[in-house]
Amino acid sequence: MTPPRDIAGSMNNLARSVSNSLNLSTSPNLSFHSPPSSFRQPPSGSFLDGRHGSVPANSHASQLAKQLKPFDTKDIKVLLLENVNDAGVKILTDQGYQVEAIKASLPEDQLIEKIRDVQVIGIRSKTKLTKKVLDEAKNLIVIGCFCIGTNQVDLQTAAQRGIAVFNSPFSNSRSVAELVIAEIIALARQLADRSMELHNGTWNKVSKGCWEIRGKTLGIVGYGHIGSQLSVLAESMGMDVIYYDVLTMMGLGTARQVSSLDALLEQADFVSLHVPATADTKNLIGASEFAKMKDGSYLINNARGTVIDIPALIEASRSGKIAGAAIDVFPDEPAGNGDYFSNDLNAWTKDLVGLKNIILTPHIGGSTEEAQSAIGIEVSTALVRYVNEGTTLGAVNLPEVNLRGLTLEEPNSMRVVYIHKNVPGVLRQVNGILLDHNIAKQMSDSRGEVAYLMADISSVKESEIRDIFQSLEELSSCIRTRVLY
Ligand SMILES: NC(=O)c1ccc[n+]([C@@H]2O[C@H](COP(=O)([O-])OP(=O)(O)OC[C@H]3O[C@@H](n4cnc5c(N)ncnc54)[C@H](O)[C@@H]3O)[C@@H](O)[C@H]2O)c1
Fold first, then answer.
1. 51 catalytic residue (yes or no)
2. What pTM was estimated for this model as a whole?
3. Are residues 231 and 204 in the same domain?
4. What are the tens digits of pLDDT across the range 316-350?
5. Is 333 a catalytic residue?
6. Fewer CB near the terminus (10 Å): N or C of the chain?
7. Cα 187 to ligand 1 centroid, rounded to whole Å
8. What pLDDT, in 10s, does the model give residues 189-235?
9. Ligand 1 mean position to 430 CA, how many Å?
10. Is 352 in a helix, a strand, or coil?
11. 313 and 194 in one domain?
12. Is residue 405 part of a domain?
């Protein structure tokens, strides 16, 4: 553990970090991309929103934005299951869609009955949208998963039917980052042990081995949505931040990237893990990595349970190599709440719970009211954009395609969305159908067997829309056609 330092010392380090990060950013050998934040779905009207082609609210442009609607569908019917957050429901009802919101999930037969009738369905993790269910969903154009995961949906079948699927993987990034800050302080002050002792009637006032976090080094492994948020928060509390990521990235503030995991482990007083669960990250921190960490340092895992080799953690804690750890995620986690955290679940549980200064939490990193509301807003916004504009930004099963919005200054214009089999010659056929009109803008992309084309066409008479729609529908490559005007 780095001993307490005065502010002047920290300022020198700050200056050094700045020059390091400048060196990094001017290296011609390194490529950069901006640190991610919730860029995929910025709030409506934000600057980033404009970058994605929509228009900022209250601007001149937004007053001129043309509200598109499907030419062949009078009402958009939406079925929301599993108690979708109110903020999300409101966004959909405000659009004038017919929304039926049900608190529970539905048994399969009732689900099939209801799904036949709707264009949009919103679910959380309990509703299974299997091939059998999707086969009945003849009118469905889009699925919103108001949660992080999408395992409950047959994504491939949905793509093959031209049904877009959206989720909200990053709405809880801030919640996780804040929890990590709390854990850093709690570990440095042995807070959980003191609290537990007092709950059991023991007054144990100690300062030995308790630290301020100011001037200590935080090492972030995985500088994505959560890692980069954490970086900003930690720095504002006077920590020096270093990070390691497989991608080369521009650090926020004075945070600087280090070239290897080993370099990070050797320098950090606190190591916090924010990588995805992949084959590469399985047991990313095991016995040899613990050996490289500083004596008396701390480890925090709010990423995924497979990332740490827990028996190695138990050993590192017992030997005093690490002074504490906070673990929010486990290789095996119970499906519901109850007294399931035992050796039956993970063979080492009893050893883990007996250790000093180990904070254990039941996968609550992202579980806040704010995150739930943000999920509601993010997914509903994506659904509205898809229904009204055909934009697939953030879709998990279709290529991401977007065009800047049509405006009222383009009165005789319409938008064609053509979801089709990814086979040669389709663009030629589609453009043959659109030939007599001016294609103002067009974008197309493919993902596996399915391709997605968007085109804005001007100088179209309303009477011609149906012909264009039908000609596209008759192409052998057609999965689904939508015309918005
Ligand atoms: N505890 C919770 O409740 C909770 C909530 C949300 C997310 N999570 C988990 O947190 C983790 C991070 O989420 P995120 O939204 O920041 O993800 P993200 O995709 O935005 O960022 C992950 C970063 O890790 C990097 N990375 C991938 N493999 C790496 C490796 N081997 N070494 C170093 N860096 C590597 C990627 O390049 C990326 O920058 C995920 O595992 C996610 O499932 C947990």
1. no
2. 0.77
3. yes
4. 999 999 999 999 999 999 877 899 999 999 999 99
5. yes
6. N
7. 22
8. 999 999 999 999 999 999 999 999 999 999 999 999 999 999 999 99
9. 40
10. helix
11. yes
12. no
